[in-house]
Amino acid sequence: MDAAFTGEQDEIRRTLRDLLAKRSGPDEVRAAVATAAGHDRELWALLAERLGLPGLALPEEYGGVGCGPAELALACEETGRALTPSPLLATTVLAAPLIAALGTGAQRAALLPRLASGALTATLAVPGGSLAVALGLTAGDPDWAGGGRAGGVQARPAGDGWTLYGEAGQVLDGHSAGLLLVAAHTGGFARSRTLLFLVRADAPGLTRTRRTALDETRPQASVELRDVRAELLGADPADVAGALARAGRTAAAVVAAEAVGAAAHCLDRTVAYVSAREQFGRPIGAFQAVRHRLADLYVQLQAARSAACYAAWDAGRPGPGEPGAAPLALAQCLETARAVTAETIQLHGGIGFTWEHEAHLYFKRASADELLLGPVHRLRAAAAQEAGLLAPYGTGKGAAA
């Protein structure tokens, strides 16, 4: 592994940071989350036009840039630094790779160029708030799609297509995405399996409701499907679980990089604040206790950045990757973001607790990401199971033989 960034990667970072500094400051972020879409549509179009961000990791034959998870994670570190609300995670990280991996030639040709251009946004909808389980990042019920029971999403053949019935919660950008990839349980109990289906935003019987979320910059919605017509993703997809796991590796690397970017911004702001804020006739940053706290955060942040870089590199390798790399890196970065954002509030004193200050937005992002793809202890337990240190979920054994 070569840890040095290429000239192209440095240019992606610099260009994106400059653009977001102008268009995605704290006031712009608050204004964007208050819109119906939950993000600035003009900024999303600008990111697509100037940087090709929606298609950064898609093949050039479909209008993408042809980069890999490393470049995508690097870009997301910058969007995490600014807390930029956008469909990037839902569209580019989750939905597009699944369509590229499982879709038919006609489906890829029809959908991927529109996703790469930013004209179409998409998301992955899984029932029961089981996104981390579906992506293979945490252990859980293997029948996370419903298993034929109430509470999931059921798929039934209907003529030359399918109909879906059920509901899914905590769907990222589910209220605004133009296309939904819905994970549904199909078949009887003896021959059941989970498949992915394409559902258009205007499909009859589809109800999408934006929900109040802890992190306003990461909008979520509940999705209800009442006999909604759907199209099977792929002609006869045999490795849906494998495709989801590969998407999970990339998602873990991206969210880890976002967490690092957010933590780095908070640490920079805190260092600047304690250098300027005076107490007892000198800056509070001159006190040894404050210096030690900041030094500890800096070391923790650099270790998290190394873990995120390794996860991004591992996600770009062919095959299953190193066991446990993705969930371990994500766990370390989420833990770091939570620690840094909490200290940011503490070291800013009274102003850090106010709604007017941006510190609470970063603390909420750190907490909400752990709820979305964690928690941290389950990520580490899944890594241990993947590495063979613990028995698989549900076996009732304390350790693997």
Which fold does the CATH topology of the largest domain refer to? Butyryl-CoA Dehydrogenase, subunit A, domain 3
Please give the number of β-strands: 9
Strand content range = 15-25%
Which overall shape is indicated by the principal axes computed on the Cα atoms? Answer: globular
Which range best describes the helical content: under 10%, 10-25%, 25-40%, 40-55%, 55-70% or over 70%?
A: 40-55%
- Architecture (CATH level 2) name of the largest domain: Up-down Bundle
Largest sheet properties: 5 strands, mixed, barrel
Total count of helical runs of at least 4 residues = 12
Describe the strand arrangement of the main beta sheet, using strand numbers.
Answer: 2-3-7-5-4
Radius of gyration: 21 Å
How many domains? The number is 3
Q: Report low-confidence residues grouped into runs of 5 or more.
A: 397-401
String of helices and strands: HHHHHHEHEEEEEEHEEHHHH
How widely separated are the two ends? 32 Å
Mean pLDDT, rounded to whole units?
Answer: 91
CATH superfamily of the largest domain: Butyryl-CoA Dehydrogenase, subunit A, domain 3
- By CATH reckoning, the class of the largest domain would read Mainly Alpha
Structural class: alpha+beta
Description:
With 401 residues, the protein is of the alpha+beta class. The chain has 3 domains: 7-117, Acyl-CoA dehydrogenase/oxidase, N-terminal domain (Butyryl-Coa Dehydrogenase, subunit A, domain 1); 122-238, Butyryl-CoA Dehydrogenase, subunit A, domain 2 (Beta Barrel), CATH 2.40.110.10; 241-386, Up-down Bundle (Butyryl-CoA Dehydrogenase, subunit A, domain 3), CATH 1.20.140. The chain contains 12 helices and 9 strands. It has helices spanning 7-23, 26-33, 41-51, 69-82, 88-102, 105-117, 131-134, 240-276, 288-315, 325-347, 359-373, 376-386; strands at 122-125, 153-158, 161-172, 179-186, 193-200, 206-211, 220-232, 278-279, 282-283. The strands form 2 sheets. Strands 2-3-7-5-4 form a 5-stranded mixed barrel. Strands 8-9 form a two-stranded antiparallel sheet. A hairpin with a 2-residue loop joins strand 2 (153-158) and strand 3 (161-172). Helix 9 (288-315) packs antiparallel against helix 10. It is globular, with a radius of gyration of 21 Å. Residues 397-401 have low confidence and may be disordered.
